User: Which sequence fits this backbone?
């Protein structure tokens, strides 16, 4: 898809350039007085939380932002493979794939040794992330991603819309009520910032609050939580531009290092014409913010022009620009519980996204770490509010995501060191010359982390069974379920198994059967399915409310190695009767694809098979032998609550 030929236009890219218009600010509606979940901030973290909550009509959610309407321009633009996988869980990946620039190559430029005032291409390589997911890294305006989340919220059962022009001011937590799930211990105060309501104060009572209000989070301050780490001393100019140039790699992501003027990173953008430039600027004085620097977009262009020499840049339009500088900092806690609290203490306030971790924009990690923060938290909070899980589950948000944030900070420090080329005279710790080979090696080494696909949660009662990892080494316990194609038995459709794991709060059990005939009642596969369907210890029997569909809490799929099975010869739990008419669901059984066999791709033991349990956020929770029914029961019994 091509757009922005005659100038950058924000909005819905499905609408042609000539007709696309930014949306007017939404009307102001009163804030609700009492909600289950209160979200502050409509960045990627807040919107993902809201998008997840919107799936549950019996959870009352309110999301608030101080801006007057949705974001239109700028900020992050790199959408990692894992972020697109998450968008697939919200049924929105198609748009992301269609509309993004798909990153396939990187180039590295350096001073020409024969003429150091000129740059020359050192090399062009395939992007290190290709093949880590069925999706490729995409580049698109952050605002467009917001819009897809907003559309999903509005079209959900909750028809959820944000409240804008409200600035969060303060927070009161009634400590006497925090351990009573039914109580509303949170009182949040907001100030209207629109012209009409200017200064008017509003309060909202909530059972839980999520502070996703960015790097200068007022929710974090209200909770008395500190960001710890280094403050920024290096600024980068960022601009989205339309230009003509004789630089040959303008449609490839490029790292350009000049001899005397610093570095530029270019990122081609969606629509074929737009380009993002990150331009290395000067060191900032201690205590100063990047936005206080007296720099204009003209300065950024002039600087870039020097770095690109001898190539020329004829900039026709600057769609958005900013000076951006963030230190590597992390909150000591991601929730309101005192440090070292046992998991039995229920948190009532959470921090997510930039509110609890900040870092430089170079790795494109801001959005791609913030959004999975709340993808991790959302299903847990819903499950506790709906009385499906023990509230102790909420403590795992902080332990799981803080580890990811710490890895991010470490990686960002390393990358910043590699990219920083002109250290302050006083700084003797940095090397003065960037080595592009080192950046390339870093990118390769960190590709799984950069793409989000190798992020792995700590062993815990929801990431367990590592002794069985050998049964399927390609489904790493704690990492996201690495999708593979399979063929649906009933109709021959090619289906990505990972795309069956939707963001609907349900758990998934994938049975990858061994070699035996699964229609034989003596086979382990048949016995496993019969256990799920009929045994009193089956988690499906224990945790599915009476009268609900058998897959409404835990959704089961089976992959059989035999390709010529008839659905009607299989255990009827695998083609269950559902809904008000008792219609049969024929979409739960698969066989491997020729030449693309999931057993080979993920190293699944063909003889014994295995059971893979996948969390509602698509991470692999455990792997079990097909015969170990007790272990499956014990897994769910550890945190789920029997239905009333
Ligand atoms: C100016 C700017 C430029 C950036 N440029 C880049 C870039 O070039 N590349 C890159 O990778 N990343 C960039 N980022 C970072 C990236 O956008 C963030 O990492 C990502 O958006 C974090 O998501 P988040 O949801 O945690 O917070 P944010 O996206 O920051 O969202 C926070 C939201 O909270 C709202 N808010 C803040 N305080 C209050 C309050 N008191 N009351 C109510 N609402 C409040 C804000 O209006 C905002 O909508 C940039 C960020 C900013 C702010």
Assistant:
């Amino acid at each position: 898809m091509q757009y922005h030929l005659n100038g950058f236009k924000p909005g819905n890219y499905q609408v042609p350039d000539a007709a696309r218009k930014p949306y007017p600010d939404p009307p102001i509606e009163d804030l609700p007085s009492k909600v289950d979940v209160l979200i502050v901030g409509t960045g990627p973290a807040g919107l993902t939380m809201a998008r997840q909550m919107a799936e549950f009509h019996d959870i009352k959610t309110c999301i608030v932002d101080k801006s007057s309407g949705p974001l239109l321009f700028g900020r992050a633009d790199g959408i990692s493979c894992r972020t697109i996988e998450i968008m697939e869980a919200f049924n929105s990946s198609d748009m992301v794939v269609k509309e993004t620039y798909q990153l396939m190559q990187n180039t590295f430029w350096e001073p020409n040794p024969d003429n150091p005032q000129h740059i020359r291409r050192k090399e062009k390589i395939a992007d290190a992330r290709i093949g880590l997911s069925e999706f490729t890294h995409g580049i698109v305006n952050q605002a467009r991603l917001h819009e897809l989340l907003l559309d999903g919220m509005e079209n959900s059962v909750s028809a959820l819309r944000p409240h804008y022009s409200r600035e969060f001011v303060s927070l009161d937590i009634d400590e006497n009520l925090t351990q009573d799930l039914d109580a509303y211990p949170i009182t949040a105060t907001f100030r209207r910032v629109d012209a009409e309501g200017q200064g008017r104060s509003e309060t909202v009572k909530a059972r839980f609050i999520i502070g996703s209000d960015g790097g200068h989070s007022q929710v974090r301050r209200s909770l008395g939580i500190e960001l710890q780490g280094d403050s920024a001393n290096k600024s980068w100019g960022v601009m989205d531009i339309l230009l003509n140039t004789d630089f040959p790699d303008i449609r490839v992501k490029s790292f350009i290092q000049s001899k005397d003027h610093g570095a530029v990173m270019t990122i081609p953008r969606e629509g074929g014409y737009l380009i993002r430039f990150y331009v290395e600027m000067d060191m900032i004085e201690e205590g100063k913010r990047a936005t206080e620097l007296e720099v204009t977009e003209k300065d950024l262009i002039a600087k870039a022009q020097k770095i690109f020499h001898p190539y020329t840049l004829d900039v026709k339009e600057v769609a958005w620009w900013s000076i951006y500088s963030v230190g590597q900092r992390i909150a000591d806690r991601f929730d309101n519980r005192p440090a070292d609290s046992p998991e039995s203490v229920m948190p009532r306030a959470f921090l997510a996204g930039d509110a609890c971790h900040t870092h430089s924009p170079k790795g494109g990690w801001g959005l791609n770490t913030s959004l999975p923060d709340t993808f991790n938290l959302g299903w847990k909070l819903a499950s506790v509010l709906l009385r499906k899980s023990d509230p102790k589950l909420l403590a795992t948000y902080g332990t799981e995501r803080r580890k990811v944030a710490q890895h991010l900070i470490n990686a960002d420090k390393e990358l910043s060191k590699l990219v920083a080329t002109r250290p302050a005279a006083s700084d003797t710790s940095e090397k003065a010359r960037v080595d592009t080979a080192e950046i390339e090696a870093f990118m390769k080494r960190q590709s799984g982390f950069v793409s989000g696909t190798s992020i792995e949660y700590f062993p815990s009662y929801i990431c367990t069974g590592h002794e069985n990892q050998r049964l399927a080494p390609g489904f790493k316990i704690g990492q996201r379920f690495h999708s593979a194609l399979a063929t649906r038995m009933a109709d021959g459709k090619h289906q990505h198994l990972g795309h069956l794991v939707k963001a609907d709060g349900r758990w998934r059990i994938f049975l990858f059967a061994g070699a035996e005939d699964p229609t034989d009642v003596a086979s382990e596969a048949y016995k496993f399915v019969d256990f799920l369907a009929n045994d009193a210890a089956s988690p499906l029997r224990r945790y599915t409310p009476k009268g609900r569909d058998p897959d409404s809490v835990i959704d089961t799929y089976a992959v059989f190695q035999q390709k010529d099975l008839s659905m009607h010869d299989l255990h009827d739990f695998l083609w269950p009767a559902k809904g008000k008419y008792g219609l049969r669901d024929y979409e739960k059984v698969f066989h491997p694809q020729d030449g693309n066999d999931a057993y080979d791709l993920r190293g699944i033991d063909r003889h014994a098979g295995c059971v893979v349990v996948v969390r509602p956020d698509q991470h692999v929770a455990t792997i079990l032998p097909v015969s170990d029914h007790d272990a499956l029961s014990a897994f769910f019994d550890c945190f789920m609550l029997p239905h009333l």
Observations:
- The chain has three domains: 34-100+140-230+329-408, 102-137+233-325+433-446, 466-637.
- The pocket of flavin-adenine dinucleotide is lined by residues 40-46, 64-67, 75-76, 142, 167-168, 212-214, 218, 238, 322, 324, 353-355, 361, 364, 366-367, 370 (CB under 6 Å).
- The first helix runs from residue 44 to 53.
- The longest strand covers residues 115-126.
